[in-house]
Amino acid sequence: MDNFQAQKEHLYGLSATQHTDARGIEAFDKVYGLGYEVGHEDWSPFTRVNRLRKTFLDRPYEIDVERLRLVTESYRRNESMPRILQCAYAFENVLLNCTLHIYPGDLILGEIAAPAKASPIYPEFSVDWIIDEILNSPFEERENDQFYIRNEQDRAEILELCQYWKGKSANEFITAYLDDDQKRGSHMGEKVFQTNNYHFAGIGHFAMDFEKLMKLGYNGVLQQATEAFAQLSKQDPDYSEKRDYYKATIITLEAATKYITRYALLAEDMAFSEADEVRKKELQAISANCYQVAGGAPQSFWQVAQLFNFAVTLTQIEGNGHSISYGRMDQWMLPFYTQDVVENDVPKEFILEILEVLYVKMNNPTKLKDKGTVKVRNGRGFGGESLTIGGVDAQGNDATNDLTMLMLEASVHTRMMNPWVCLRMHENTPYELKIRTIECVRAGYGHPKLFNDSPAIKAMLGKGVSIEEARCYAVVGCVEPTIPGKEHGWLDAGYVNTVKMMEMVINGGRVLSGPNAGMQLGPDTGSLETYQTFEEVLESIDKQFAYWCDQLCSCLNVTDKMHRMIKPTPYISAFFEGCIESGKDMTFGGAKYNGTAPQAAGIATCADSLATIKKLMFDDQKYTGKQLLDAVKENWDGHQKLYALVNSSKIPHYGNDIDEADELFIFMFECYCRHIKGRENPRGGKFSPGVYTVNANVGMGLYTNASLDGRKNGEPISDNMGPVHTAEGSHDTQGPTAVINSVTKVDHSLATNGTLLNLRFPEDAVAGVEGRDILVSFVDEYMNRQGMHVQFNIMSSEKMRAAQKNPELYKDMLVRVAGYSAYFVELGKPLQDDLIQRTELRF
Questions:
Q1: Do 739 and 643 lie in a common domain?
Q2: Helices (H), 178-300
Q3: Do both 523 and 609 map to the same domain?
Q4: Looking at 360-478, which runs of residues are DSSP E strands?
Q5: Confidence of residue 376 (pLDDT cuts 50, 70, 90)
Q6: Are the CB atoms for 324 and 312 separated by under 8 Å?
Q7: In angstroms, rounded to a whole number, what is the distance separating the alpha carbons of residues 8 and 1?
Q8: Ranges for the Glycine radical domain (predicted)?
Q9: Residue 352 and which of 341, 506, 541, 819 are 20 to 30 A apart at CA?
Q10: Are 753 and 491 in contact (CB under 8 A)?
Q11: Residues with a known catalytic role
């Protein structure tokens, strides 16, 4: 990088450097390796953790029938009751009757009403796809994300129980309420936008108020609900709805305490018959922990970890929304850490072991997804289990502490998919924390991902929260900032394929090619054959975006109302400010802040397509609009010269610090944000735009016709905020500094639902102390330029190709896909290829 020595002196000079008293177990500058190593030794210093980790990797992914059975049994018994009480009694029936599991070496208990690594079934949301795939596209025969049904008896029972739910699931109601235009543009039609996440599953992407639970325990929260119920007046016009809400809340909280007590009794019984004295004492302690947190507040760090796991897995039992995240864990856990380590002389090593055991445990929950979703987003976990550390406190001061450092150590020692560690950075982030972070990044397992407090806090203020609340934001899912326990933001609500919108812009609102070629899909706002000026092209984009955002948001509002009608969530609502106070479930708008947040995909593809149009059709006038349109209609066949030109540096491309190209990206980015932000939703909140794709750019590309950036039919569209890379080559050619210069010309805070930037360096590019320091300096420069988020793959294309050829040697090799990390060998080949094709950057 330019002037690196000066930057290094400024960064590391004692007079200009923030330091911290926070300490982990290991030296902050310990080197944890450089990328993935075949045949590596165990990473954790704890034998137990290494054994638990290996056991997890060796387990198969299965489908479990028990939740489906118990939920169906309850609904059949309570068919005449109000829906929220049906939900509560079904939750209770599961907790009181599901099989409990305590595995060898466990220190933390609690699963999702299914054995470890087995997925329950949630018929409340959808069943048609389950029936169809069992009969016609077996889960175990998928190309990736396979699941296994244990035996034919279970297979037959699943089919029989699912029949009861036909006509009763959320997806069927949503589909019935959508009009033809909404369906035609959605995943059911031409896939201009996709909202199937919340058609087929519950609402997730939130962080509950863990601090409240840790202070009050279940009994304290139950008391709040009971007292609020007692004060409810029959003069209230909403008396019956509030009455049912309070009853449902009390049922679910009482069920939670009974469920945890069941675990306490099981551990007690196992301890009684355990011959090994060490394990006997562990089981006795586990039992005592469970008895304490069944109703009361935790009294130790171990008990906090135990209650946390119960709280999260109970949320996943109630509904299968993905990205149930953990909030600012180094902050809300800190009082218990301080009490144990400072006051009670508990060794830090024990705290670290508890964290590592918990990290492994976090990977047990798995989620069965439909084949359409799996094609767009690979992964068998719930996904999005983000754990936020670092950043500033409510007063704006650095919040780094011992747990910040220990949680990074636990991450690099376990190197698993979960948790998704999110490190918040700011201008006073301590030097030691920066170095520890970069050493974790250089280890090559995709964690942590980095967030910039300045634009993130500005984005939160743009959603109307207070400055103190904004400073306490946490990350949920991939990159979405939220206020834990206060905001039900409906984040990750849907994916918008902006490249399909551009298809409408260049072709008169008609489908470009394929079996539906020529079909009128959107409004006719002009085509390349009719535009006389480039300004007319930009006006057409604005009109198409307005139309398609209308379709998208109206579809999401229908979905929102159906979830309220079909699947309220009284358990999790108890841990959101405003719900108990107002007597409203969060699905009815009971939370303090309510939003809906869809995200745009393919912005760089659109920007580079615009660059082609501007350069060749208007500036140089070398090609007519018809010639450009014919080239993409014919998938570039017979247009090799034009295809090579469009993919060359003779066209100004986004990602190379060229203002002319970057301004087109800014236009596309701001156009999307403008047409989403501020729309109203049914819960009294506002819509919030995000600009990221996760890995959906690969699946979306499969259904997207050729585009004028030089991609062909079926190729991935651009990922997240990154530059274009087509089969012909990457469009960013000027190195990593040019990329971040382009990316940060945008005001990231306009995307109040977050932005995402992936960068990849081969191992040798960041090797040694110099490589480490350059990467630190590079991150600092990106943050100074107000980028909101960045994450790294430290992995060469050569290594990923080797893993494709010999997957058995790379079984636990994690890669940073987008907002999440995943085992490379478990990804579908199209996604693997997309990762390989991403630009390999060097300083």
A1: yes
A2: 180-185, 197-200, 210-230, 239-273, 277-293
A3: yes
A4: 386-390, 420-425, 449-452, 474-476
A5: low
A6: yes
A7: 11
A8: 723-843
A9: 819
A10: yes
A11: 478, 480
Q: Which of 249, 217, 297, 327 is nearest to 88 (CA)?
A: 249
Q: Is the residue at 201 inside a domain? A: no
Best CA proximity match to 606, nearest among 516, 718, 523, 477: 718
Its sign, for the CA torsion 167, 170, 172, 176, is positive
Nearest-angstrom CA–CA distance, 692 and 720: 4
pTM over 0.85: yes
- 66 and 39 together in one domain: no
Do the beta carbons of residue 194 and residue 499 sit within 8 Å?
A: no
**Distance between CA 818 and CA 833 in Å, rounded?**
14
Helix (H) or strand (E) holding 88: helix 83-97
pLDDT in tens, 95-105: 999 999 999 99
Q: How far apart are the C-alpha atoms of 242 and 584, rounded to whole Å?
A: 6
Cα–Cα distance measured from residue 496 to residue 501, given in angstroms and rounded to the nearest whole number: 9
pLDDT digits (tens, 9 = 90+) for 107-150: 999 999 999 999 999 999 999 999 999 999 999 999 889 999 99
Q: Are residues 642 and 532 in the same domain?
A: yes
Q: Are 26 and 115 in contact (CB under 8 A)?
A: no
Question: With bands split at pLDDT 50, 70 and 90, how would you rate the model's confidence at 200?
Answer: confident
What are the residues facing 793 on neighbouring strands? 760
**Crossing angle for the helix pair 768-784 and 431-442, to the nearest 10 degrees:** 110
Last residue of some domain: 690, 724, 753?
753
Looking at the structure, tell me whether residues 153 and 120 fall in a common domain.
Answer: yes
* Distance between CA atoms of residues 150 and 583, nearest Å: 43
SS (H, E, C) 103-149: CCCCCCCCCCCCCCCEECCCCCCCCHHHHHHHHHCCHHHCCCCCCEE
CA-based nearest residue to 286, from 115, 112, 108, 113 = 108
724 and 649 in a common domain: yes
CB 379 within 8 A of CB 446: no
Question: Which of 255, 284, 318 represents a domain boundary (last residue)?
Answer: 318
Measured N-to-C along each axis, helices 152-165 and 128-136 cross at an angle, to the nearest 10 degrees, of 150
DSSP code at position 425:
E
CB 348 within 8 A of CB 25: yes
Contact partners, residue 274, CB within 8 Å, separation at least 6: 280, 283
Q: Examine residue 186 and state whether it is found in any structural domain, yes or no.
A: no
Token couple for 518: 């020529």
| Structural domain contains residue 776 | yes
Whether the pLDDT of residue 280 is over 80: the answer is: yes
On whether residue 196 sits in a domain, the answer given is no
Q: Based on the domain organization, do 647 and 500 belong to the same domain? A: yes
Give the total number of structural domains in the chain: 3
DSSP annotation of 340:
I
**Which contiguous run of DSSP H or E holds residue 534?**
helix 534-566
Q: Locate tokens 């939160």: which residue?
A: 460
Residue 296 structural domain: 61-177+206-318
CATH number at residue 819: 3.20.70.20
Strand partners, 325: 207
Strand 118-119 with 62-63, pairing: parallel
- Backbone phi, psi, residue 379, to 5°: 135, 135
Contact 430, 400 (CB under 8 A): yes
Q: What is the DSSP string of 47-73?
A: HHHHHHHHHHHHSPPEE--HHHHHHHH
Distance of alpha carbon 816 from alpha carbon 444, whole angstroms: 9
